């Protein structure tokens, strides 16, 4: 696993946006695995600016998103489909037909099976972007005594519901279940890039970069088994976990 320490969160986002741009420039029909949450928003802003400046063309790119809440439609302003449209897809020259976010409505099991198929359709992702939950969850694979390899329905933990409540009017509005790629789906990507910032992420990042332990209680530690995993953190977070480059 490679760890990149930048001077600031903005710099981290610039580094990751450059990685994605370089990939798409060298492979115009690249397949991207995309993430939601607050962390990637500035990365998407930078990609929009690069696209507007003519530096990168998304017209042949395909995307698959990590996860989606169960019980809210893609038109709901807290659905991950809505997030992706408003934070990225509506502002770049991607063909929305080439973007996939699992549906959170209807038959959840069938939707998870559809997500599983999309992970591998046309080949695995060239790059999978990841954030990380305060408890080390990636996508919605929650800390537990076991993890699941394939796309499935996950019951969200109290920690995740609390952390995501800030995006909803009230905590009770946060869905309690989600459809998520499994750990095997995430590790199948050719390259995995995880971005983290903020002191709430200290315990999770400590477990990820400060030792060689792999534990289902911190799902992000599975990335230690990937041959091309990159963790991008800023100096504030690196200092807080005691990481020295
Ligand atoms: C959600 C998403 C994750 C994301 C996490 C952290 O639970 N399912 O993919 O990594 O939130 O989000 P944030 O970047 O807002 O801290």
The helix/strand order is EHEHEEHEHEEHEHEHEH
Q: State the distance separating the first and last CA atoms.
A: 13 Å
Number of individual domains: 1
C-alpha Rg, in Å?
A: 17 Å
Oligomerization: single chain
Number of distinct beta strands? 10
CATH topology: Rossmann fold
Count of alpha and pi helical runs: 8
Task: Give the uncertain stretches in residue-range form.
Answer: none
Key attributes of the depicted protein:
single chain, 245 residues, alpha/beta, Rossmann fold, seven-stranded parallel beta sheet, three-stranded antiparallel beta sheet, 8 helices, 10 strands, 17% strand, globular, binds 2-amino-2-deoxy-6-O-phosphono-alpha-D-glucopyranose
Describe this structure in words.
The protein has helices at residues 9-26, 41-52, 80-87, 108-120, 158-164, 183-187, 202-209, 235-241, and strands spanning 2-6, 31-34, 62-65, 67-69, 99-100, 127-130, 152-155, 177-180, 192-196, 229-234. The chain is α/β, with parallel strands linked by helices and 245 residues long. The protein has one domain (2-241): Rossmann fold (3-Layer(aba) Sandwich), CATH 3.40.50. Strands 1-10-9-6-2-3-5 form a 7-stranded parallel beta sheet, sandwiched between helices. β9 (192-196), α7 (202-209) and β10 (229-234) form a beta-alpha-beta unit. It is globular, with a radius of gyration of 17 Å. The protein binds 2-amino-2-deoxy-6-O-phosphono-alpha-D-glucopyranose. Residues 35-39, 66-67, 131-133, 139-140, 160, 164 line the site of 2-amino-2-deoxy-6-O-phosphono-alpha-D-glucopyranose.
């Amino acid at each position: 696993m490679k760890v990149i320490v930048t001077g600031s969160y903005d710099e981290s986002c610039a580094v990751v946006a450059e990685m994605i741009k370089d990939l798409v420039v060298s492979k115009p029909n690249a397949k991207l695995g995309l993430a939601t949450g607050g962390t990637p928003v500035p990365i998407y802003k930078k990609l929009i600016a690069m696209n507007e400046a003519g530096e990168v063309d998304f017209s042949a790119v395909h995307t698959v998103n990590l996860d989606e809440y169960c019980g809210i439609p893609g038109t709901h302003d807290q659905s991950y489909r809505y997030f992706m449209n408003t934070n990225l897809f509506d502002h770049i020259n991607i063909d929305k037909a080439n973007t996939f976010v699992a549906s959170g409505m209807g038959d959840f099991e069938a939707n998870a099976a559809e997500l599983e198929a999309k992970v591998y359709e046309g080949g695995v992702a060239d790059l999978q972007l990841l954030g990380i939950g305060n408890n080390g969850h990636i996508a919605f694979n929650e800390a537990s005594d076991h993890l699941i390899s394939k796309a499935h329905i996950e019951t969200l933990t109290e920690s995740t519901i609390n952390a995501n409540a800030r995006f909803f009017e009230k905590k009770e509005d946060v869905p309690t279940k989600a459809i998520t790629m499994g750990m095997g789906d995430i590790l199948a990507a050719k390259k995995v890039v995880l971005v983290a910032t903020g002191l709430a992420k200290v315990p999770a990042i400590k477990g990820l970069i400060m030792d060689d332990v792999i534990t289902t209680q911190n799902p992000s530690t599975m990335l230690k088994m990937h041959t091309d995993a990159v963790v991008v953190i800023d100096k504030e977070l690196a200092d807080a976990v005691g990481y020295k480059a």
